[in-house]
Design brief:
Elements (H helix, E strand, L loop, with lengths): L11 H5 L8 E4 L7 E5 L7 E7 L11 H12 L4 E5 L13 H16 L5 E11 L1 H11 L21 E5 L9 H8 L3 H5 L24 E7 L7 H14 L2 E7 L15 H12 L6
Parallel strand pairs: 3-4, 3-5, 5-6, 6-7, 7-8
Antiparallel strand pairs: 1-2, 2-4
């Protein structure tokens, strides 16, 4: 993994060129090619705190994803944090979109619970870290306790791996209120991500939109580059205000001179502040 720092702002080409170490294990939670997660373990005996990484890419295969997040995974394992790097079916893959992408998130977390029985993982110290589209998915993971029991996305409570700490890196979380931005930034229509209304499910945001599933007891740190044009700082501030108004904890960190891609690169000059947000969420920032 290259340790050369990129001069901000990073470009999409810089992001696509990111790489990192190979995982210690690749585990499948389904039969489809994209239904797997990568496990990265630090040196030592553990038990280790866990960062669940969920990549972005506008919910499509076009913009990379899990491979690029190995860059962050390598940096986190060097800090003594285990990583669960999640792949999932996207809207342009068979079974992706609604409900498949969300069911993949559930299944990936269920597999993590089983994996923790065989590896030194401390699931009581867990943060879900998502970039861009992945930010939407990790904030949705935290919101699962509020999903109606009638939804195909519902899991019996308590969910096997509750997500109470979230770091959203340039996240596009609020499907209801950011419909126009999802179209201009990613070319996505809400129906691709939330499904279409039906008599049984008239409100498509009732089980997909983290912005409608609050309070859920989570704490979110929204980290956004000051130069992010995909998910501008305004998006982070708006979501944080809604979360706090609902009774959840939310903080905003703006990265000076950083783009949408600096947010996710351990080779970025913004990385120390991103790392601090992750370690703060894990309760270990002041231990180093």
């Amino acid at each position: 993994m290259s340790t050369t720092l990129h001069a901000a702002p990073m470009t999409l080409a810089d992001y696509l060129a990111l790489s990192g170490p190979a995982p210690d294990a690749t585990l499948h939670y389904g039969a489809a090619p994209s239904q797997y997660a990568e496990l990265f373990l630090p040196a030592g005996k553990g038990p280790f705190p866990v960062a669940v990484l969920v990549h972005g890419g506008c919910w499509t295969k076009e913009f990379g994803g899990i491979t690029q997040l190995r860059n962050m995974a390598g940096a986190l394992t060097a800090r003594g944090i285990a990583v669960w790097n999640v792949e999932y079916r996207r809207v342009d893959e068979a079974g992706g979109g609604y409900p498949g992408t969300y069911q993949d998130m559930n299944a990936a977390l269920d597999l993590l619970a089983r994996t923790a029985r065989e590896h030194p993982l401390d699931l009581d110290r867990l943060v879900a870290v998502g970039h861009s589209a992945g930010g939407q998915l990790v904030q949705w993971l935290a919101a699962r306790p509020r999903i109606p029991a009638t939804s195909p996305l519902y899991q019996a409570h308590p969910v096997p791996v509750p997500v109470r700490q979230v770091v959203s890196l340039g996240g596009l979380a609020d499907l209801r209120r950011e419909t126009a931005l999802l179209k201009t930034s990613c070319g996505r229509d809400v129906a691709e991500l939330a499904g279409t209304p039906s008599a049984a499910r008239p409100d498509v945001f009732s089980d997909t939109n983290a912005g409608d599933l609050m309070p859920n007891g989570s704490r979110t740190i929204l980290v956004t580059g000051a130069l992010d044009t995909i998910s501008p700082p305004r998006v982070a501030h708006d979501f944080a205000a809604r979360a706090r108004a609902a009774g959840d904890a939310a903080d905003v960190v703006i990265l000076p001179g950083a783009s949408h891609y600096d947010e996710v690169a351990a080779t970025s000059g913004a990385w120390p502040r991103v790392l601090r947000a992750i370690e703060t969420a894990l309760g270990i920032a002041d231990d180093r």
